[in-house]
Amino acid sequence: MNRRAGDGWTSGRAVRGLYAVTPDEPDTPRLAALVRAAVGGGARLVQYRNKAADPHKRHEQAVALLAVCRELDVPLIVNDDLSLALAINADGVHLGADDGSIEAARARLERDRILGVSCYNSLRTALAAERAGATYVAFGSFFASSVKPAAVSASLELLREAKASLAVPVAAIGGITAVNARQLIEAGADCVAVISALFAAGDVEAAARRFAGLFPLK
Question: Is 196 a catalytic residue?
């Protein structure tokens, strides 16, 4: 199935399981192959994230990944860049604290596209994001992260409180491995967002399969 942007993703049904977040890989064909392997192993959604590339390279890579994700019927979310997400007709965008107004992003996005929001360790921020139109909220870092070594810490109790307070899906991020992910899922995480433990693995598809197997079948 070649799903178009907006075919029902915003219901939150797609925000469950392994959330593959891309590394800063300069080689576009290799990045596309890595994402294909991750989805082949069971990743349910993909976030294009590259903090090192220039705008031209980011556009090139986002277009390439969108083609892979369309083919494999998973949503592609663009990190931090609403304009890029709109330009390539991606399935949504993920915003951090410094990436602009959630309300403004929701107004520019079609209602059936995904809007994710980083809430770090703040339930109050998550509640406000939900009211502003977020499709899902993300908390973390739950464990030490090589990608964001200075990130604030989030707790398992926060996950439990979030699941009791929010109607939207909850994502966990930060230093997550196939070993420590289970406790996050048991505490209420609907999905785990993973970079290094997935894409730095010798066999990306096998690593994805291990993460995907932690989620109960529904």
Answer: no
Q: Where are the domains of the chain?
A: 9-212
- In the residue annotation, 111 being an active-site residue is answered as no
Q: Which of 70, 118, 141, 210 is catalytic?
A: 118
- Which of 3.30.470.20, 3.20.20.70, 2.120.10.80, 3.40.30.10 is the CATH number of 9-212? 3.20.20.70
114 in Cβ contact with 90 (< 8 Å):
no
Low-confidence ranges of the chain (pLDDT < 70): 1-13, 150, 218
Query: Catalytic one among 36, 44, 49, 70?
Result: 49
Which sign, positive or negative, has the C-alpha torsion 24, 30, 33, 34? negative
Place of tokens 């989805």: 39
DSSP 68: H
Known active-site residue 49: yes
Closest CA to 48 of 71, 74, 9: 74
Q: Quick: pLDDT tens for 156-198.
A: 999 999 999 999 999 999 999 999 999 999 999 999 999 999 9
Helix, strand, or coil (residue 118) = strand
